[in-house]
Every structure is written in structure tokens, then in C-alpha cells.
Amino acid sequence: MSILVYFALLLIIPIIASGQVKKAYNKYSKIRNSSDMTGAEVARKILDDNGLYDVGVEEVKGQLSDHYDPRSKTVRLSTDNYHKPSIAGAAIAAHEVGHAIQDAESYSFLAFRSALVPVASFGSNASFFFIIAGLLFQASGLLLVGIVFMAAAVLFQLVTLPVEFNASNRAMGQMVSSGIIRNNEERESKKVLNAAAMTYVAGALVALLELARFVFMFIGMNDD
């Protein structure tokens, strides 16, 4: 029964987090912000206010595909957020600009996360091959290698948390100080940003649960 509960949690936690994001986004993407600024205009204003004139703002296809690309120094906003003057669009645009500001200031957690990218990518892809081989052949050494690789990927997700929360805090500060949002819009913007942040928390929690499960398997294998 306990294993069923475990796998149920692995499925339910991300579903709940994703549902909260969609719920908040669908609600506040339909409400105009008081400054009547599109996401593109919000991003450009905050970038210029912080002297980041060389950082571009581009439209990208998809929904909630918004991101900051540190390689090309570009904030990319999904179509609706780029063109519409909504509360959700403004909040998400400001959040992505928060990452651009982190990059410009060499924010330590962002730099650490960037350094972890190749290791985490390899670890995420390779870990299960070693783990499955270790379990099939009852080879604790192979299982341990898989656990180490998985731990690198989990570390990446954990380091992502302060990066995302810091970007959201920067976003709120920038939107308020520049007058992009006012009064109740602060609370509504926080709902959008907090819901998005919970997806990262959920992902990290699931990854930690998976890592712990294989660590306990390794301990049990050695005890035998």
C-alpha cells in the first residue's frame, strides 16, 4: 500500500502545481493591468530602467513558454503575454526580466545553476541507465553511480528555487516602483508568480523523493 501512496504522490504533486498555475494564469490573463502596458512594454521599461539596453525582448510561440536566454541576452515572451496588457502578462514579463537583472549582476545562484547545466543534463539522462542496470544485476556499484548522477540533477533543481524566488521578488519590486501595477494588483500579481514558483517546488520535491527511494534501495542492497 505504501508504494502505491508513493507513486500517487509523484503523480499528484506536479498535477496540482500545474493546475494552480493554469488557474491563476487563466484568471489574470483576462484582467487588464492599470498601466495598460503589454508584457513587451513592461519588459522593455524595466530593462531600460536598469540600464539593460542591450537585452532584447522577443515574441516566442506557445503558452507560458516565456524565458530569459542568457546566451543571446534576450527576454522571450509567449504571444499572449507579449501583446496583451494583462496582469498576468506584466507579472511574467517582469519575472523574466528579473533573470536578466540577475545575469547582469552575476547573481551567485544563477551563476552556479548555469555551471551545473551540463552536469545536470548528463546526470538526468544517464542516471536511470545505471540505476536500472544496478537493480537488474544487483550491482550496488552501478546503482551508486546512478544515484550520484541523479543527485547532480536534483541539485540543479534545488538551486533553481532561490533563482526563481529571487526573480519574482525583483519583479514585484520593479513593477511597484515603476508604477506598472497599483493597489490590489500587487496581490494579484503575487498570486500569478507564487503559482508559477510552486511548479519548481513541486518538481524539486518529486526529484528528492525519487532520489531518496533509490538511496534506500542502495542501503538495503548493501545490508543484504
Can you characterise this structure?
By secondary structure, the protein is mostly helical. It has one domain. The protein has helices spanning about 1-30, 40-50, 80-85, 85-105, 110-135, 140-175, 185-224, and strands at about 55-60, 65-70, 75-80. A three-stranded mixed β-sheet has the order 1-3-2. Strand 2 and strand 3 (about 75-80) form a beta hairpin. Helix 1 runs antiparallel to helix 7, helix 2 (about 40-50) packs parallel to helix 4 (about 85-105) and helix 5 (about 110-135) runs antiparallel to helix 6. The longest helix is centred in the last third of the chain and has 40 residues, at about 185-224. The protein is elongated. The chain starts with a helix and ends with a helix.
- Protein structure class: mainly alpha
Physical arrangement of strands within the biggest beta sheet: 1-3-2
Number of helices: 7
Q: Any idea how many domains? A: 1
**How much is the average pLDDT?**
95
Question: Quick one: overall form?
Answer: elongated
What's the end-to-end separation, in Å? 23 Å
TL;DR?
The mean pLDDT is 95.
Characteristic key phrases:
224 residues, mainly alpha, 3 strands, 6% strand, transmembrane helix, Zn_peptidase_2, membrane, transmembrane
Furnish the topology, listing elements before pairings:
Blueprint: H1 2-28, H2 39-49, E1 56-60, E2 67-69, E3 74-78, H3 79-83, H4 87-104, H5 108-136, H6 140-177, H7 184-223
Parallel strand pairs: 1-3
Antiparallel strand pairs: 2-3
Pfam families: Zn_peptidase_2
Protein name: Zinc metallopeptidase
InterPro entries: Zn_peptidase_2
